[in-house]
Amino acid sequence: MSNVPADLRYTRSHEWLRTLSDGTVEVGITDHAQHALGDMVFVEVPEAGRAVKAGQPCAVVESVKAASDVYAPLAGEITAGNGKLADAPETVNAQPYGEGWLMRLRPAPGALAAAELLSAADYQKLLDAEAG
Amino acid sequence: MPVSEKVIFEYSQPGRGASDQWPHDPGAAALSDVPPSLRRVRPPELPEVSELEAVRHFTRLSQLNFSIDTHFYPLGSCTMKYNPRACNQYAMLPEFLARHPLAPESHGQGLLACLYELQEMLKAVSGMAGVALSPMAGAQGEFAGVAMIRAYHRSRADAGRNEIIVPEAAHGTNPATATMCGCVVREIPVGREGDVDIEALADAVGPNTAGIMLTNPSTLGVFERRIAEVARIVHDAGGLLYYDGANLNAILGKVRPGDMGFDVIHMNLHKTFSTPHGGGGPGAGAVGVGERLLPFMPIPVVGREGERYRWLAEEDLPHSIGRLSAFMGNTGVLLRAYIYMRLLGRDGMRRVGEFATLNANYLLKRLQQAGFDAAYPQRRASHEFIVTLKRQARELNVTAMDFAKRLLDYGFHAPTTYFPLLVPECLLIEPTETESREVLDAFVTALSLIQKEAEHEPGRVTSAPHTMPVRRLDDVRAARQLDLTWKPTAQP
Amino acid sequence: MAFIPHTEADVAAMLAAIGAQRIEDLFDEIPAELRIGALAGVPEALNEMEIGRLMSERARRDGLALSFLGAGAYEHHIPAAVWAIVTRGEFYSAYTPYQAEASQGTLQLIYEFQTMIARLTAMDVANASMYDGASATAEAALMAVRANRKSTSARILMPTTVHPHYRRVAATTTCNQGLRFEQLPYCAEEGITPAASLARFEGHDVTALVVQQPNFFGRLEDVDALTDWAHAHGILVIAVVNPTSLALLKPPGQWGARGADIAVGEGQPLGVPLSGGGPYFGFMTTRMEYVRQMPGRIVGRTLDAAGRGGFTLTLQAREQHIRRARATSNICTNQGLAVTAATIYLSLMGPLGLERTAAAAHGRARELTAALTRLPGVRTAFAGPFFHEAVLQLDRPAAPVLATLGSRGILGGLALTGYYPELGSALLVCATETKTSADIDRYRAALADALQQTARAA
């Protein structure tokens, strides 16, 4: 059973999204995803200032088993990549929803409303369906 | 087995060396014409050791390895059969070893005869119209195959065909190759009995279909029973069929890929035709093509005009996909495959398929009798089969990885683990035809003993291996703290 | 039955255990119409004595010639110990080291190889090898596209002084991945890539520049100037180098102010016999910052569960990973035996042996060109220093001259007419430390005769 915090939103490709008080959003990968990948050995995060489109791959998480693209859940501009992960990729495993955040971005006008995001309950349903 | 061996640089002493291997000193004047700005300032830091130190070091390293010559190596999809010594001896005759790739054909008729006849024999066993020998590995053969498919469609002004269909159980190189050729991958599911889902295939084909990549027998170790239908569906939609020859050993001399409807195939000469695995290479991935793809074969190819052999290159094959190798591929490997095929002959080829299949079915039956779960118990094994340890993982917390590592302590190289990804906790087991019944029985005994250990003393299995030069290695650390070259002050 | 140990008793017992009557029953899932009877087109088996005789006859027929061919494959002395060890069963018949605990020999050897090649090229890190120098060059171009974040054009500058087969292989391998190769002309007098041919790319988006040293003509390029120019314009430098020459020539890690970004080449000169064209191996090295973009296998050192050092394949996730945004590779092998030979060779030769080999080869090449150009009608094509091979121009067609030499057991060189028609009757000739002064004199005399004969024929 993986952890699915109720206050976050989710994508079908196992990213989570948190709205911050300054209007930016924070993005990472879910507990399910970090568990499936295994021990992280390397994380590549985007640079601030980069413009991204919804669904565009913009980060990479790599374990010994697999390297996986992480997709921007909505269009916008990257305001920060989590620089701490370069020296401590295992943070993504230990705290996928906290210190293991991957990037922050400022949504393009209307992008947040238009984004195809799942509620925690819907994401849980997705996980149940995949397991069955 | 030696327990461990220092890194060669740790033997280095300044001034040591195998001086009888060095040419005589030509003197400083020899380099007087090379400007100082282009000269190396400090010599490269290569080991300085005596000849005996080097020989002893590398001999000891070899003794740290498992190999076919020393151990049963039932790696599924790898075909670890005996590498006959004769193949090496005669491929390394001095005249063959000394031949420069660009030497004129007049000085290479003997070599060219061997390569031509190899092409002909590979055509015969595969049922294809043409064979090209230059791809240097299975993956390069795959690349050639998909590139030829694309070239074919382009030549018919059908360049929109850019989708390659791949079963979900396919080997990782298949979709990677498709992407490398600028194609899009469409995965189709596999049914409960291991065959490709025909309805899903019929849905997936269309005007964008370039082709399908299949292995038969499949990566699940079973024969694709509806292959004729698969071929019809794909051909009717205008696509071509690509055969991944990784499992050719199962059907060698019994079934020909060309007869199954495949338009292009690659053969792993380092699997089916027993050229040495060499610790990871060199291989050779010869490709065979049907009539439609003959014009696109990668160059060079050996041709014959009367009694003379010659290389066919750009002028002869103007629509070739091009060159994959600086010269003509892994010629030394090709010679080994040639010698092997001559030693087998017509009847020997057939026996490969028969006895590889006999050994696999026998081993499967014995393992089932010993209580292990086959992934497809209702199917015949081809030359390989899958045992799943998901029950042991669930009930005993002992995984396929743990069984694999413990097998090493029993003197067996582990089977392929965790491939195909479709079957959880799987062991893909391929005994090959060159193993005797006693070896197979001993393998069953070892697995049974490990099962007992898993039930009563699981720690012994989960912390295996215990008797190898090293214990289980920390590959997370290896990837996080990259140590890829030796440094004098580095501590392990 | 060749290589099959089963007796009739074995077969009977095994079929009984399976519950089948005959071996043929085991194929009953295969549609009958697909199953063939006898294999047409394959001859009857030979026993080992017979195949030995056949191969020996064919080898004798081909014979051994006195060769002055280079052009990407070089004849060097190989110490006897090299292949004695390489063909030990534990190396010869071992598999890819996926079960690391059972493969420490192979893994440690590759780690030592990576170290030696990185040091030879003065770069940070090497992989476990690629198929050959040509495919390594193609892979380097794909890698440069992945690694050069500032460039999106996938345009690669490719001098025509790079080996023509390497250029062809690069095109074949990358043609479906959107790379564009721009051919750079060479200077007719000097046979190298002039700075002028680069000028027109200034201000354009270019991803990488390939520089071969020595180049295909044997000439030495101005590697510092080319490297610095490329870096000043955000262009990555791919060096294609001859490993023997690196004992004496400036290694790619020291080209220009910052060094090349990726260095590749053909490893065959390091203890691998010519063997009709393969198997050889390509080596690939790069800077640490690009290591995750490097294709192929890589061995790393780590600790085992008891805290002892050990070796394992690492960074494997890159190999299976399919990333659609950028070009990828499907490679999943390395040239194991050839790499084993090179590692043992480099250990036996050491820095002084490799230096002597390079110097002796260069000395012989100079001796060869001096001897041949003393003949009327033979001149060097290009002014300037070369390394162990050079282009000569004849005053008459090269093919008949080469044929005459061939009939006297001498392979005089590679005719360049097909590759560089603008050079006229040009020959690429090579001499390594394996040639003696007597050999060179034999060539000179035979060439003198051949020139006389063809003059008479005309």
Description of the molecule:
- The complex is a heterotrimer of chains A (132), B (492) and C (458).
- Chain A is of the alpha+beta class.
- Chain A has one domain: OB fold (Dihydrolipoamide Acetyltransferase, E2P).
- Chain A has helices at residues 31-37, 91-94, 111-114, 120-131; strands at residues 9-10, 15-19, 25-29, 40-44, 51-52, 57-63, 67-71, 76-81, 103-107.
- In chain A, the strands form two sheets. Chain A has a six-stranded antiparallel beta sheet.
- By secondary structure, chain B is α/β, with parallel strands linked by helices.
- Chain B folds into two domains: 86-344, Type I PLP-dependent aspartate aminotransferase-like (Major domain) (Aspartate Aminotransferase, domain 2), CATH 3.40.640; 351-476, Aspartate Aminotransferase, domain 1, CATH 3.90.1150.10.
- Chain B is 35% helix and 11% strand.
- Chain B is built from 14 helices and 13 strands.
- In chain B, the strands form three sheets. A seven-stranded mixed beta sheet of chain B has the order 1-7-6-5-4-2-3, with helices on both faces.
- Chain B is globular, with a radius of gyration of 25 Å.
- Chain B starts with 50 loop residues before the first helix and ends in a 12-residue tail after the last helix.
- Chain C is built from 13 helices and 15 strands.
- In chain C, a hairpin with a 5-residue loop joins β9 and β10.
- Helices cover 37% and strands 14% of the residues of chain C.
- A seven-stranded mixed beta sheet of chain C has the order 2-8-7-6-5-3-4, sandwiched between helices. In chain C, strands 11-12-15-14 form a four-stranded antiparallel beta sheet, covered by helices on one side. In chain C, strands 1-13 form a two-stranded parallel sheet.
- By secondary structure, chain C is α/β, with parallel strands linked by helices.
- Chain C is globular and about 80 Å long.
- In chain C, α3 runs antiparallel to α11 (336-373), α5 (104-121) packs parallel to α11 and α12 crosses α13 (437-457).
- The chains are: A alpha+beta (132), B alpha/beta (492), C alpha/beta (458).
